């Protein structure tokens, strides 16, 4: 699994000139994708059970603290100001509103509260109130996560000092495919922010989106990129595209759900000790597809009936499925 050609190095590794012990080549990841489904799930289960309780799923709740009006052109996103998605932009929420939502999420069983802002990068005047949100949410006894876009020098330090546990910043898609999806920043910009976060000892939440029209090879590259971060992210959200009317990807044909499950299984095998989060797209998924995702090693979800701007399964649907599967929510 460690062998890879020099050409592949360039495309799938995190700016590393040398093959590190334990690195995943794109070919090795692609081979996992090609396994017969039962063999893939068996391998994912073996890995999962070695490191986690296979019947426990962690829950994080999301809140969009600043919605819409984003300068970036991510072609999947409802919040880019470049597309007519009908979304109404909203300014930064007040501390009081955020705390009310955080307490409600805690009362419903979430262990982590993730605050998302539609910024390319937070300005200094934006960061101050977010720091206060982080420290106050933490006082409620919740883990904290924020996703604010690209960080400038010094900002990760301040987030760490406020008590931030996780920073979410996704690689989103394969390096070779990135510029077809986003042109206003690069995958190296994303990697830089992840480095800044990591260097302050903040845990990294980094994953991607599938169903953007990418091929299987691109999915393998995405997973290799994530698995080869050193160390792999503690939390790996795998999002299924939620098609948004008005965006360039509104009409992309839906990804085969079995291929989505394969992606989860490959993430589990290549990132054995990471939480793999079955993220956006659950509302559009059958209970049976979700069950296969848990079987493939997903052990985290977003709970609560809203993601950032789109719907998520409500508490009753999740509780019902967990009861049918004997899954304990943690
Ligand atoms: N602006 C920040 C950023 O880009 O990191 C934070 C918010 S952004 C909405 C967080 C992540 O949500 C994106 O990186 C992408 O993976 C995911 N996402 C956004 N729109 C999505 C959609 N329509 N379907 C699935 N995932 C989506
Ligand atoms: C992540 O990987 N997925 C979440 C969170 N990180 C911020 C966001 C999903 C957004 C789905 C589309 C929406 O609701 O706008
Ligand atoms: Fe902005 Fe993030 Fe949406 Fe891209 S994904 S348009 S950076 S909010």
Shape assignment: globular
Question: Measured on Cα atoms, how large is the radius of gyration?
Answer: 19 Å
In this structure, how is the largest beta sheet organized? 10 strands, parallel
Q: Which oligomerization state do the chains in this entry correspond to? A: single chain
Uncertain residue segments: 1-17
Order of helices and strands: HHHEHEHEHEHHEEHEHEHEHE
Query: Structural class, from secondary structure content?
Result: alpha/beta
Helix content: 40-55%
Q: Kindly report the average pLDDT value.
A: 94
Bound molecules: S-adenosylmethionine, 6-(5-methyl-2-OXO-imidazolidin-4-yl)-hexanoic acid, iron/sulfur cluster
Please report the distance between the alpha carbons of the first and last residues. 33 Å
Strand tally is 10
Instruction: Quote the beta fraction.
Output: 5-15%
Number of helices: 12
Family: Belongs to the radical SAM superfamily. Biotin synthase family.
Organism: Uliginosibacterium aquaticum
EC number: 2.8.1.6
Keywords: 2Fe-2S, 4Fe-4S, Biotin biosynthesis, Iron, Iron-sulfur, Metal-binding, S-adenosyl-L-methionine, Transferase
Description of the molecule:
With 330 residues, the chain is α/β, with parallel strands linked by helices. It contains twelve helices and ten strands. Strands 1, 2, 3, 4, 5, 6, 7, 8, 9 and 10 form a ten-stranded parallel β-sheet that branches. Helix 3 packs across helix 10, helix 4 runs parallel beside helix 5 and helix 10 packs parallel to helix 11. The N terminus is likely disordered. The site of iron/sulfur cluster has 9 residues, from loops.
């Amino acid at each position: 699994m460690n062998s890879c050609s020099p050409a592949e190095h360039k495309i799938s590794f995190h700016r590393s000139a040398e093959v590190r012990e334990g690195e995943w080549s794109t070919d090795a990841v692609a081979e996992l994708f090609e396994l017969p489904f039962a063999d893939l799930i068996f391998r994912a289960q073996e890995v999962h059970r070695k490191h986690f309780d296979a019947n426990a799923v962690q829950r994080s709740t999301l809140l969009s603290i600043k919605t819409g009006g984003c300068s970036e052109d991510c072609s999947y996103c409802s919040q880019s100001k470049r597309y007519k998605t009908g979304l109404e932009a909203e300014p930064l929420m007040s501390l009081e509103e955020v705390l009310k939502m955080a307490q409600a999420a805690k009362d419903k069983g979430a262990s982590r509260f993730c605050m998302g802002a539609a910024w390319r990068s937070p300005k200094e005047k934006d960061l101050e109130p977010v720091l206060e949100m982080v420290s106050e949410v933490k006082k409620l006894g919740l883990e904290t996560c924020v996703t604010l876009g690209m960080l400038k020098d010094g900002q990760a330090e301040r987030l760490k000092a406020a008590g931030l546990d996780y920073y979410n910043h996704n690689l989103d898609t394969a390096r070779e495919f990135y510029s077809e999806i986003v042109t206003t920043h690069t995958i190296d910009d994303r990697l830089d922010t992840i480095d800044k976060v990591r260097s302050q000892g903040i845990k990294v939440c980094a994953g991607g989106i599938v169903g953007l029209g990418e091929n299987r090879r691109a999915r393998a590259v995405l997973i290799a990129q994530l698995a080869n971060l050193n160390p792999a992210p503690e939390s790996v959200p795998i999002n299924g595209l939620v098609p948004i009317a008005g965006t360039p990807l509104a009409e992309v044909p839906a990804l085969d759900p079995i291929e989505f499950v394969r992606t989860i299984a490959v993430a589990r095998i290549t990132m054995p000790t990471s939480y793999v989060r079955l993220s956006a797209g659950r509302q559009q998924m059958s209970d049976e597809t979700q069950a296969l995702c848990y079987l493939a090693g997903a052990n985290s979800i977003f709970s609560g009936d809203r993601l950032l701007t789109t719907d998520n399964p409500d508490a009753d649907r999740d509780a019902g499925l967990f009861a049918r599967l004997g899954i304990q929510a943690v």
